[in-house]
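Q: I have 171 residues here and want to know how they pack in 3D. Can you give me a structure?
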Amino acid sequence: MTDAASTPASGNAVARTAPTPYPASSADIHLIRRIIPHRYPFLLIDKVRNIVPNTSALGIKNVTVNEPHFQGHFPDTPIMPGVTIIEAMAQTAAVLVGITLDLVDKEPLVYFMSIDNGKFRRKVVPGDVLELHVTVRRSGSRIWKFHGAGLVEGELAAAAEFTAMIDLPKH
């Protein structure tokens, strides 16, 4: 993808080329940690598969009873909080953006700008494998919009539209 921009000094158009995506269609926990800054207890995805740059990705969250939110979120009937499901979708989206823009080892930060149409349809409990289907709705250099759906055994657990801003540190 290229676009034209005017240089301030001359006013002439200059072609800019989008970054070449990082050469990966999946990300294990080691690559995820090279893309997003999240760490225990708030790293909520275990791997990302089926990465199609600028299009979609599938995050995987293996839900275990050892996670800290289960100590206080209905401890006798542990249920993964809906907001953490949406956060796991956002982390999957951040890995997708990191691959798309080749941000591996560049320490990007991703901030929520909005969450819309959040819906929760099924409990997510220890032992579940939560599949986080994320699709790009609008891409850009800094502002991105996504649709996310969390499924367990093919059944919709949660869905939301969300917008995020990518911020690269100035080194």
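Q: Anything worth noting?
A: The longest helix spans residues 82-100. Helices lie at 29-35, 82-100.
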